[in-house]
Design brief:
With 261 residues, this protein is α/β, with parallel strands linked by helices. 26% of the residues lie in helices and 22% in strands.
């Protein structure tokens, strides 16, 4: 621009936006990645298990609901075909069709519901005596690792290596720590893998209703006594059906007494 042109435009001031690229120092150590805990999502997975009455207390079947907020998203039964006889499985399938519940083997429940909803969708996993119910889903178990969970148990729920184990450590008769282990599959992006950055494990979100009730009331409850204390619309029904061969009436009692209908 000539001197004459500069003089011509010397009285004009243009305010322009300027974009700058800046690099800020990181506070993380090399090879790690720290991000805010997102917390549980709007989804909740509520489930309960029915077991044999012997010392092993092996899973027979379970019932679950998936809710998004207050809305029921899915409900169903999951069955252990290694324990239930053909007649009992037929009874559960017939009853599930009658009330429009999904009916799947326990392995499919673990894969499609517990992990894909409870883990991938960050659902809040809810149960009464939840550590026991989770342990009934396990196909293997061992000692848990890590400073916080040392002395607890690690439960493998799926043969698929990309799903985490569930660690449980009992602190008292009322309180337990629960979390997911590191997921061994590839979950980091290509750029993060190239820089050898490791993502922290998603801990999962668990709510044991018995522990929650004890924290609020300083009392210990079972399902029946807690329902009576809270004055819930649905109460646990005393019956002699437990431990007997399953019938449609017995299945109906089990899920109605737990508030699943």
């Amino acid at each position: 621009m000539s001197s004459r042109q500069r003089g011509q435009y010397s009285g004009i001031i243009d305010h322009l936006e300027i974009e700058l690229r800046a690099y800020v120092p990181t506070l993380r150590k090399a090879g790690t990645w720290r991000s805010a805990d997102l917390g549980p999502s709007d989804y909740a997975l509520i489930f309960d298990t029915e077991t044999t009455t012997d010392a092993a207390q092996t899973l027979k079947f379970g019932v679950y609901q998936v809710r998004k907020g207050d809305a029921l998203w899915e409900a169903g039964f999951f069955l252990n075909p290694d324990i239930l006889n053909p007649g009992e499985m037929a009874e559960i399938r017939f009853y599930s069709a009658k009330i429009n519940y999904r009916c799947t083997p326990v392995a499919e429940f673990v894969e499609d519901v517990f992990f894909k909803i409870g883990y991938d969708l960050r659902a809040l996993v809810i149960g009464l005596n939840l550590p026991f119910d989770i342990s009934r889903l396990a196909i293997r178990h061992g000692a848990s690792r890590g400073k916080m969970m040392k002395g607890g148990f690690s439960f493998q729920l799926s043969p698929q290596r990309y799903w985490p184990n569930i660690q449980i450590k009992h602190l008292s008769s009322r309180v337990s720590l629960m979390r997911c282990t590191s997921r061994p599959g590839r979950v980091a992006g290509r750029g993060m893998r190239r820089r050898k950055v490791k993502l922290p494990p998603q801990p999962g979100y668990f709510l044991d209703v018995r522990t929650f009730a004890a924290a609020l009331t300083s009392r210990s409850f079972g399902l029946g006594s807690l329902a009576d204390f809270l004055g819930t619309e649905t109460r646990k029904i005393d019956t002699d059906e437990h431990g007997k061969a399953l019938t449609g009436e017995g299945i109906g009692w089990r899920i109605a007494s737990r508030g699943y209908q």
